[in-house]
Design brief:
6-stranded mixed beta sheet, binds guanosine-5'-triphosphate, Rossmann fold, globular, binds magnesium ion, GMP Synthetase, Chain A, domain 3, about 25% strand, 9 strands, alpha/beta, 9 helices, about 290 residues, 3-stranded mixed beta sheet, 2 domains
Length: about 290
């Protein structure tokens, strides 16, 4: 009987959240091509016979330019001290760089770390071997596992490797639980994901979503009614998020609603509105109100 926590740690965009979803076999974390998609430590549970593995997805560590950025880095680094093992995730196709070097320096010497070379679907075996070689200069890794979070190649092998690293212990979470996120958090993330996929440049970073109300989930009403506010930092961004004649917000709402309906197994009415919270990424009061 074994139990333990394993953090996924790495630069933004290397595919940590995509990999967590692949390891769990369910969508528990949102993903996008925008750096700093993940903004909190997200726990996801994988059970195997009597053993339980709790994956902890973390924000990609980067050079911060806002208070939010500093907090995201802190969230990731704090997890390193609280887990039984670490997956140091790198982008095998992009290759290792200065960023990876800086991140590896924070790996605790006393915690086993597996070097996960992700995105192998994009590169040939020679390139993967070169990245393994480069990674040996960064840290004393317990193992190296090339994977593709998108195709699923190597994901089973990585799970075997992680289960083998777990200390003895009893499961902490019920077998049917796949994530510790609240309904409110899951819903706000699904809305934010749709916005990340449809906005560019600085806009995705300026977006935060707060669910104000979820009504009817605990009753046998026909429809679950959800009200959420999309926060942006400037008036011009509000226009972008709403779109021409409200087209953008409508499209975001439709796609997010479909996913929320699948999540709850219920019909959903989703009402979205957009508000400006000036420079919220740089203000401590705004960050705590938005849950960061
Ligand atoms: N081709 C390919 N793309 C991948 C793979 N894994 C992730 N991606 C893509 O890489 C981008 C970033 O993925 P995420 O999972 O959001 O990356 P992340 O490391 O969690 O990023 P942050 O949360 O910003 O730190 C997305 O566009 C993914 O679809 C992979 O194995 N192969
Ligand atoms: Mg992520």
């Amino acid at each position: 009987m074994s139990f333990g926590f394993v953090a996924l740690y790495g630069r933004p965009n290397v595919g940590k959240s995509t990999l967590v979803n692949a390891l769990v076999g369910e969508k528990v974390a949102i993903t996008s091509g925008v750096a700093q998609t993940t903004r909190s430590a997200i726990r996801a549970v994988v059970n195997r016979e009597d053993d339980q593995l709790v994956l902890v997805d973390t924000p990609g560590v980067h050079k911060p330019v806002t208070l939010l950025g500093e907090r995201l880095n802190d969230v990731a680094r704090r997890q390193l001290g609280e887990v039984d093992a670490v997956c140091f995730v790198v982008d095998a196709d992009a290759g290792l760089g200065r960023g990876d070097e800086m991140l590896a320096a924070w790996l605790p010497a006393s915690t086993p770390a597996v070097c996960v070379l992700n995105k192998t679907d994009l590169c040939d075996p020679g390139r993967i071997a070169a990245q393994v070689e480069a990674s040996t200069r960064l840290h004393e890794f317990a193992a190296w596992v090339p994977v593709s979070a998108v195709s699923g190649d190597g994901v089973g092998l990585l799970l075997d490797e992680l289960f083998a690293l777990l200390p003895a212990g009893e499961s902490m979470f019920p077998a049917e639980m796949t994530t510790d996120q609240s309904d409110r958090h899951l819903v706000s993330e699904l809305v934010r994901e749709q916005l990340l996929h449809r906005t560019r440049e600085e806009v995705p970073h300026s977006i935060a979503v707060l669910v104000e109300e979820i009504e009817g989930l605990d009753t046998d009403d026909d429809v679950v009614r959800i009200e959420a506010t999309v926060y942006v930092e400037r008036e011009s961004q509000k226009g972008i998020v709403i779109g021409k004649g409200g087209a953008m917000l409508k499209e975001v709402g439709t796609h997010a609603r479909e996913q929320i309906e699948a999540l709850f197994g219920r019909r959903v009415h989703l009402a979205l509105r957009v508000k400006v919270s000036p420079s919220w990424q740089r203000r401590a009061d705004a960050l705590s109100r938005l849950g960061y």
